[in-house]
Design goal:
Low-confidence stretches: 168-175
Helix content: 40-55%
CATH class of the largest domain: Alpha Beta
Number of helices: 12
Distance between the termini: 40 Å
Shape: globular
CATH topology of the largest domain: Spore Coat Polysaccharide Biosynthesis Protein SpsA, Chain A
CATH architecture of the largest domain: Alpha-Beta Complex
CATH superfamily of the largest domain: Spore Coat Polysaccharide Biosynthesis Protein SpsA, Chain A
Number of domains: 2
Strand content: 15-25%
Order of helices and strands: EHEHEHEEHEEHHEEHHHHHH
Oligomer: single chain
Mean pLDDT: 89
Strand order of the largest sheet: 3-2-1-4-7-6-8
Number of strands: 9
Length: 292
């Protein structure tokens, strides 16, 4: 098996068919398999997955309650492909996704590097095994993996938009009834963010939140919750990374593969850039992208 398309999913029924259809239109069962971990969905997601498994020969379903990071790792461990393609099944994949896969085939960095775009990527199995795959995290499990690959000079980033994603707000408003559950999920997200993105201190994260949150929720909800999450992350003894080092290391691994499609350089936030203008200024000074 050449490629394994791996994903983890929870309560994605409203979007699942459209997402799978957008993937299946390109692939064939001779070269591709699909491995999906369902985190015990309650909205009919599993039934839809079984429906597609009956249509596509190499479609494997695993049911296990897990975090997003653990789910991705379980899918990876149960796959057989030489190359792993992580996808999100609340995303509709666009033609640039398929163009990225084809471009990787002839790329001079194939096998030496994993390649990450927006909403998907391509990872040689041996590189995932080398860094231990995905960790058991609910949030930022993707950046956590990217950074470990960057540290061993094994990841390149092409900020090509490969899909169209639904926002998390939709999932929460439909599927989460209990307010305490919502708060706990937000807490886990913030805690894992501080664990993975240790270049963010509490002040930097709160400034980021203040840009989009309402005034009353910022002071009554986000400040206490984020502060608690920061303390919890510190108890994990996470080594603090220098923000300038992380930022420069990240952008120095950007490449251009000349695939037609939208490019978003700012798809990952950094403490220094609280506005798009600041990012554009940095990119322009380094590569001249601001002239495009």
């Amino acid at each position: 098996m050449k490629y394994s398309i791996c994903s983890t999913v929870y309560n994605a029924a409203p979007r699942l068919r459209a997402s799978l259809d957008s993937i299946l239109q390109y692939i064939n069962p001779e070269e591709f398999e699909i491995v999906v971990v369902d985190s015990k969905s309650k909205d009919g997601t599993l039934e839809i997955l079984k429906e597609y498994a009956n249509k596509f020969p190499n479609f494997k379903i695993i049911v296990r309650k897990c975090t997003r990071g653990k789910g991705r790792q379980i899918a990876f461990e149960n796959s057989q492909g030489e190359y792993i393609i992580p996808v999100d099944l609340d995303t509709i994949y666009l033609p640039p996704w398929w163009e990225l896969i084809k471009a990787y085939e002839s790329w001079e960095g194939k096998d030496k590097y994993a390649l990450q775009a927006i909403y998907s990527g391509i990872y040689p199995r041996h590189l995932l095994e080398k860094v231990g795959g995905w960790r058991d995290l609910q949030y930022a499990e993707d950046f956590d993996l990217w950074w470990r690959l960057i540290e061993i000079d094994s990841l390149k980033i092409y900020p090509l938009v490969t899909g169209k994603n639904w926002k998390i707000k939709e999932r929460e408003s439909i599927h989460i009834k209990n307010i305490l559950h919502i708060v706990y999920r937000k807490y886990l997200d913030e805690r894992d963010r501080f664990i993975v993105r240790s270049e963010f201190n509490l002040g930097a994260r709160l400034r980021e939140i203040k840009m989009w949150s309402k005034r009353y929720s910022y002071y009554l909800f986000w400040i206490p919750l984020t502060s608690l999450a920061r303390v919890a992350a510190l108890l994990k003894n996470v080594e603090r990374r220098d923000a300038d080092y992380v930022r420069n290391k990240w952008f120095n691994n950007f490449i251009n593969m000349n695939i037609k499609g939208d490019i978003i350089y700012s798809f990952v936030a950094f403490p220094q850039f609280t506005t798009a203008k600041g990012l554009i200024k940095f990119m322009d000074s380094k590569w001249g992208y601001g002239d495009e």
